[in-house]
């Protein structure tokens, strides 16, 4: 019997009276969506790291196949937590995705904990976000949507602040000696225009 596992296989031995009575070979199958998900993250400058308790050969094979940035293998639940802390100590903003009880401590420590809906209840209770579908692309969509929302928020904040910085002093008569004065009517129009621009800019987010 050949008991040597391939790179993407995990062997489980069944022992009876300290003798091998059987062998179960588990093989990891990478979901097709994972390739596009990792590729998209990489194109956006977002690192992807595999953190697992499996022996080294399996995660190395998966990491190499998906072209991930790194992997940590054979880690226990408390070690997953320490790895998250280690990444954070280096200034990394960590989004952790997990589905098992062993992932709960790391999900709680991460800046953003994302639990897969089909996983354990403990992981779901610990994470801040729960994915209904177990689709890696949903994680990418979530991250990109959050980044786009943040950009829109900053844009709208800059516009609203710029309006107040310029319009209010003009309405108060700061440049009155140079015959520059913003009338109340003009100020009201600009204020309405500012609200419209902010609303349109926010609406563009849904178009993307």
Q: How far apart are the first and last residues' alpha carbons, in Å?
A: 56 Å
In the predicted model, the low-confidence regions spanning at least 5 consecutive residues are none
Question: What fraction of the residues are assigned to beta strands by DSSP?
Answer: 15-25%
Q: Number of DSSP strands? A: 7
- What CATH architecture of the largest domain do you see? 3-Layer(aba) Sandwich
Written description of the protein model:
- The protein has helices at 32-43, 57-66, 77-89, 104-109, 121-126, 136-171, 184-207, and strands spanning 9-16, 19-27, 49-51, 70-72, 95-98, 112-116, 129-131.
- It is of the alpha/beta class and 208 residues long.
- The protein folds into two domains: 30-134, Rossmann fold; 141-207.
- The strands form three sheets. It has a three-stranded parallel β-sheet with strand order 5-6-7. A two-stranded antiparallel sheet has the order 1-2.
- α1 runs parallel beside α6 (136-171) and α6 (136-171) packs antiparallel against α7 (184-207).
Quick recap:
The chain is α/β, with parallel strands linked by helices and 208 residues long.
What attributes characterize this protein structure?
single chain, 208 residues, alpha/beta, Rossmann fold, 17% strand
């Amino acid at each position: 019997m050949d008991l040597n596992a391939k790179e993407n296989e995990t062997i489980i031995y069944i022992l009876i009276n300290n003798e091998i009575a059987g062998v179960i070979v588990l093989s990891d199958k990478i979901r097709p969506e994972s390739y596009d998900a990792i590729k998209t993250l990489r194109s956006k400058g977002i690192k992807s790291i595999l953190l697992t308790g499996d022996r080294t050969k399996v995660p190395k094979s998966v990491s190499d196949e998906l072209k991930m940035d790194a992997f940590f293998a054979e880690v226990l639940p408390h070690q997953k937590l320490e790895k998250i802390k280690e990444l954070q100590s280096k200034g990394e903003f960590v989004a952790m995705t997990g589905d098992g009880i062993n992932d709960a401590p790391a999900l709680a420590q991460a800046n953003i904990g994302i639990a897969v809906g089909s996983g354990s209840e403990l992981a779901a209770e610990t994470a801040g976000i729960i994915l209904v579908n177990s689709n890696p692309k949903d994680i990418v969509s979530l991250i990109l949507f959050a980044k786009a929302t943040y950009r829109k928020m900053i844009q709208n904040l800059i516009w609203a602040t710029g309006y107040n910085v310029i319009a209010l002093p003009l309405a108060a008569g700061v440049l009155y000696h140079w015959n520059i004065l913003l009338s109340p009517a003009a100020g009201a129009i600009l204020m309405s225009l500012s609200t419209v621009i902010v609303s349109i800019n926010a609406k563009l987010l849904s178009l993307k």
